[in-house]
Amino acid sequence: MTTSFTRRTVLASMGAALATPAFLKRANAAEVTLKLHSMLPAPATMNTQFFEPWIEEIRTASEGAIDIQLFPSMQLGGKPGQLPDQVRQGICDISWTLPVYSPDRFPVAETLALPFMVTNAEKTSVVMHKLMDEFGQDEYPGTKTLGFHTHDGGKFHTREGLIHTADDLKGLKLRAPNQATGKLLELMGAETVFFPVTEMVVGLSNGVIDGCCLPYEVVPAFKLQELTKFSSAPAPASRGLYANTFSMLMNQRVYENLSDDLRKVIDDHSGIALSQRIGRQFDTFEQMGKEVVIKQGNTIGEIAAEEISAWREIAQPVHQAWIDKLNDRGLDGAAILNRANELLDADQPA
């Protein structure tokens, strides 16, 4: 009797173990660990308020099967412009990249980085995702695109004096956020240099530049409120000066090697909904950054809508040059710019 009971007990226990191996495995250990490479320092809001919660959401949705490790400050080596290749080559599994750091390589993704191609971050991010779906499907071979977004429109942050008109830009040495915006600033008389945002503190500290053109959200991560004293922003009804574009990428082989249910977790946490969410978050980051500038006691000024309209006319050759560049790549440059403007002007991008 005792032997029979023991045998039944053992068999029942074995049966229970065999019936729930996936649950036990996912409850106790990750099936796959992914490396996410970020160019920004660990305290940056993109890391703490987007990546970390997103990572936890994926861990929860996968019942612990997917673990994503965040490596900030380019800890896996290389420079920000190399991040798309690092994803494709498998140096990292996921990354968040700026197309403008590899100029002309991802022309459709870079299009919304032209001057005056931004409303707010949420809407412009949705526009970018739709533009990439329609025209940019082939730009990132070897990767699965998880999302696209922009930040809010850039502002001038200068060491001495506000910017009210184009005349105020003459002779200023400014860090340009990308090549196209740099060309516009040069047309208005500024001297521009371009280097990644991660190198900007040195440029401001040693006097190589008099200021920079950036959204407020970047300010706290690099303590720019201590290095500049004046911020100048377009009037609220105007298009923003510029917005850099971002692409969130995953290695295609790694994605395809996931089980069906784990691929679904990634799919459920990517796509246009993710693009819109990041954009919305960047609008929140923008207000947070502005509050830091205000708290520092810096002076904030407004560039009148009429002045911005005049600047948009000055920017027309920059836009035409981009259309020609897209045409040279076998794309329909005018159609891409027209579609982008149509989506930006619509009440809801369709």
Describe this structure in words.
It contains 15 helices and 11 strands. The protein is of the alpha/beta class and 350 residues long. β6, α7 (179-187) and β7 (191-193) form a beta-alpha-beta unit. It has 2 domains: 27-152 and 244-285, Bacterial extracellular solute-binding protein, family 7 (D-Maltodextrin-Binding Protein, domain 2); 155-242 and 298-345, D-Maltodextrin-Binding Protein, domain 2. The protein is globular and about 60 Å long.
* Spatial strand arrangement across the major sheet: 7-6-8-5-9-11
- Percentage of residues in DSSP E strands: 15-25%
* CATH C-level name of the largest domain: Alpha Beta
| CATH topology annotation of the largest domain | D-Maltodextrin-Binding Protein, domain 2
Radius of gyration: 24 Å
Q: Which word captures the global form?
A: globular
Roughly what percent helix?
40-55%
Major sheet size, sense and barrel closure: 6 strands, mixed
Distance between the termini: 73 Å
CATH superfamily of the largest domain: Bacterial extracellular solute-binding protein, family 7
Low-confidence blocks of residues:
1-25
**Helix and strand run:** HHEHEHEHHEEEHEHEHEEHHHEHHH
User: How many domains make up the 3D coordinates?
Assistant: 2
Structural class: alpha/beta
| Count of alpha and pi helical runs | 15
Looking at the overall shape, the CATH architecture of the largest domain is: 3-Layer(aba) Sandwich
Number of strands: 11
Average pLDDT score: 91
Keywords: Periplasm, Signal
Protein name: TRAP-type C4-dicarboxylate transporter periplasmic protein
GO biological process, one term: transmembrane transport
Subcellular location: Periplasm
